[in-house]
Amino acid sequence: MNKPLNILLVGVGGQGTILASKILAHVGQFAGYDIKVSEIHGMAQRGGSVVTQVRMSNKVFSPIIEDGEADVVIAFEKLEGLRWMSYVKPGGALVVNDQAIFPVPVLAGLVEYPRDIPGYIKSKVKNAVIFDALKIARECGNSKAANVVLVGVLASLLPFSEDSWTKALEARIPARFIEVNKVAFQAGYALGLKAQ
Q: Of 47, 48, 59, which Cα lies nearest the Cα of 5?
């Protein structure tokens, strides 16, 4: 891979974006690529934004993804998808968890949470996949596996073997949670393939 693969993961503190980026980085390392990761935690412990940029190629010189240069943006919350959709490059994909987590200004009544975010995103981004990852994770047996459902959708868009993703899950997730996360990954992977 001579041209970097740029993946942007955005969400809210506590949603598992960091774990998802570590799984992705593990897959890239398993494939032998140079990887650069940049994490930004904006008051993450209080429900603030968490942004992780993952770039991989034969050689990567910077961890920063420029606006309009992301091959895939994975949004763990729909307002974050709206905020970061401009980062999707032409022909790139935006995967959005249709979940609302109200930021402090909304909770304080200072601003309104935007209406019909999915409709707006679909009108602006050709390759947008929007679904309820939390509902799917619950159906798989654990709502905390919503991040791995999103990883499954991401895996369906990238050129890495399913086996490499399974190994990355086993390396990054505690053994007592691995089976439910494998089920969640498979559900996301199937959804991603169906959406293409």
A: 59
